[in-house]
Specification:
There is one protein chain. Strand 6 and strand 7 form a beta hairpin. It is globular, with a radius of gyration of 16 Å. The chain has one domain: Rossmann fold (3-Layer(aba) Sandwich), CATH 3.40.50. The two termini are 18 Å apart. It is 28% helix and 22% strand. It has five helices and ten strands. Helix 1 packs parallel to helix 3 and helix 2 packs antiparallel against helix 3. The model has no long low-confidence stretch (mean pLDDT 91). It is an alpha/beta fold.
């Protein structure tokens, strides 16, 4: 039973940069948008927006940590591919495909594997910050954050970048009690270590 973790943030808030302290042998990146990482260290990555290729890569690898960078584009690119189709079925299909990827992580991967979904945010009419999808029709089919026990929100004040780990009532950030401080440096390697300690994922090593 793998662990999916949702990392939310606006463009430039530090989502991709949070991968900087991983070593190449520790993580693999599925780069949905095909853009370069914002640091010099070379991490192994595959540029793909294919659900099947991502699931195949997750299943075949022996690594314990993965990142799906710009995971919201899995929805966006699929919408563009079906833009000429009429009706609501395509939105249901898109919701099912994303849901199936998250459930694959939970059901098909070993319990010590963590998959980080790096995902853009949107702001609702009421001012709440949430995961970006592709509109209200898909939101009616899928509450994306509901698929994750851990949702971290990337923030920056222009001087520092950090994660919010709990909601202030205006975001969808959440995490289990005692896992993180309310704010922490946007360092996914540190997040990874804390999750493994909390759930005792490396106790057999």
């Amino acid at each position: 039973m793998g662990i999916p973790v949702l990392i939310l943030g606006e463009s430039g808030s530090g989502k991709s940069a949070s991968l900087r302290n991983f070593e190449p042998e520790e993580i693999s990146v599925f780069n949905v948008a095909g853009k370069p990482l914002p640091f010099r260290k070379k991490l192994p990555k595959v540029s793909t927006s294919s659900y099947q290729q991502i699931m195949g890569g997750l299943k075949a690898s022996k690594k314990k940590s993965f990142a799906i960078d710009d995971s919201q584009y899995l929805l966006c690119f699929e919408l563009f591919d079906h833009a000429r189709e009429t009706g609501y079925q395509k939105f249901t299909d898109m919701a099912v495909n994303f849901y199936s990827l998250v459930k694959f992580v939970i059901a098909q991967l070993p319990e010590d594997v963590i998959v980080y979904f790096l995902h853009h945010t949107d702001t609702t009419d009421s001012g709440k910050i949430k995961a970006k999808t592709i509109g209200k029709m898909l939101d009616e089919k899928l509450t994306l954050e509901g698929l994750f026990a851990i949702v971290l929100l990337c923030r920056t004040d222009g001087q520092r970048h950090y994660f919010e780990t709990q909601s202030d009532g205006n975001t969808t950030a959440k995490s289990p009690m005692g896992l993180f401080d309310r704010e922490m440096d946007n360092d996914l390697k540190l997040v990874d270590q804390k999750i493994r300690e909390y759930y005792q994922l490396d106790k057999g090593e």
